[in-house]
Amino acid sequence: MRVEYINPFVETSYSILKEVLGGTEVKRGDLYLKSTAMPMMGVAALVGLAGDVEGRVLFDMTVETALNIASKMNGEQLTSFDDLAKATISELANLITAQAVTKLQELGFKFDLTPPALFVGQKMEIAALSGTSENVEALIVPLISECGKIEVNVAVRERT
Length: 160
What we know:
Blueprint: H1 3-20, E1 27-28, E2 32-35, E3 43-51, E4 53-61, H2 63-74, H3 83-106, E5 111-113, E6 117-120, E7 137-145, E8 148-158
Antiparallel strand pairs: 1-7, 2-7, 3-4, 3-5, 3-6, 4-8, 7-8
Helix pairs in contact: 1-3, 2-3
């Protein structure tokens, strides 16, 4: 996995989170790799990538963190993960990936994205990239704020 593909997602996630959370401090945790088949935390916004590389970006968080973020972004306390909260988290994923892909296109890479898909539930698992029998590892970048932890989970490979 080339770092040129990963950095725009990490940098954009950090700056947009800081912006939408009203300047709240956002800290970047240590990067690590994990199998793409590891269980998710409870709410996962997934955006597919196609073009020079194929793969996906996943924004993984607990329901509590998702509610905290959605509450901050909407300026009101949300108490259940309803349609407004779901739409808010999907829009956050959309903002981040669109800006990251724009940065990648400025560097000469060509990408298309899928609209965000939102998964909510316990013990969810995102399987390997489609069309491959090998287990692709994902680079995980934890971002921690007063709202909780979001793991920016990027799994990409160059198209062959």
